[in-house]
């Protein structure tokens, strides 16, 4: 019988009301492995109402007690990391080791959230007027929601849940319907760690459930990560309904390689960053920009030499460099974009279409129907081609040749997306100028995927991010709390009479 993945509400599995379900595939085999329930608007409203009640007690719990639960939660996640990574790998298609990284980069943010008592401290000014003090406090928002993408089913939910919960909010997570099991398991472990029922809920669904979250009058803030059109839609709808929103979208990350770069290190970095996780990372490098013909020719030659060494296989194959892409429509879309690149005149140096996995089977299972695509390399790509303008989100690397630094600089600077960018060089002055001027949110200097560590913030610019506060780091506590400022005087009993003009501090 097919397994059903249910919602997780009020501290326990909550079967849906018998409405719609969606298949959860194993992308390595192309076979359905479970069905996930898709919540109706009424079911979402019920979850939110329940969370609203649970939040009151959670907000009153002192912050140190809250973070002790989070510390225990971290420890339980670590105890269960192999099981979590296996489930994640089987639903997403990323390799087991990569899946462990997905979880570990999430728990990094839980560890950061353990500092909540510090971030929740307010400010105090003594004697701002005669006998008057002013102080501020940071209070939780109430019930907040996270709407998250398929490509990091542990990391991104934890990036949202950690600071939100540590700050005293109740959290409703609507994870991707493509790989929903790990988010549920994380919520179960929160309860096992001593978290109160109703504070961390997982509700599965698609547009209907998302719209119910956006229309709810109880939800105070929405943290979204996904594609740009949906990020924009959610940002606009949150503005219309008066909610706080941080909405992160798609990307087209460039890597500039200057002639003085250590080319071998740059190629190592590029191969991992372009093809790792089948290119399904918002910080993947999808455009390489070598400066000068000599650098470009040498880079291309080294890539051509390295690409055949990559192994595309079942996500649990320990020898696989990367696994399948997440779904058949994703595979078809990537192949279609490669067709378009070829038709537009880009040079298809290595064609990954239609070649499947390296092996016919893994562990007795056929890989013939898996969603595999071999690494693909284009050279002489120009900025008008769809393979350059669009996010491909697959293992496709485009080389765009530049004659000099300024020409290379303009490419990521003028691209519609502005998530991450990398520069490889030995010239500190060039790197410094690049980082200073470029209109992109996260910069790597000789680092290909510059995902900032948990105590700095993560967020892209331009079409890669809507809203002014980033994920994790101190911004996350600003996002999940609001400031209240108290001006107080304790009168000495001597009446001063009514004052009809604006008080002035003198
Ligand atoms: P997606 O936009 O299809 O889905 C994201 C979430 O939105 C899911 O929970 C999904 O159920 C929901 N959703 C989908 N369509 C919707 C609709 N019409 N109305 C309301 N909700 C809807 O994204 P995805 O395919 O799951 O993830 C890949 C995308 O996420 C890529 O574009 C990638 O670059 C981006 N991403 C960005 C970051 C970042 O930090 N900028 C990080 C990871 C992924």
Automatic annotation (TrEMBL):
The keyword NAD applies. It comes from the Bacteria. Residues 18-486 form the Aldehyde dehydrogenase domain. CDD domains: ALDH_F6_MMSDH (cd07085). GO terms for molecular function: oxidoreductase activity. Its EC number is 1.2.1.27. Residues 1-30 are annotated as: Disordered. Keywords: NAD, Oxidoreductase. This is methylmalonate-semialdehyde dehydrogenase (CoA acylating).
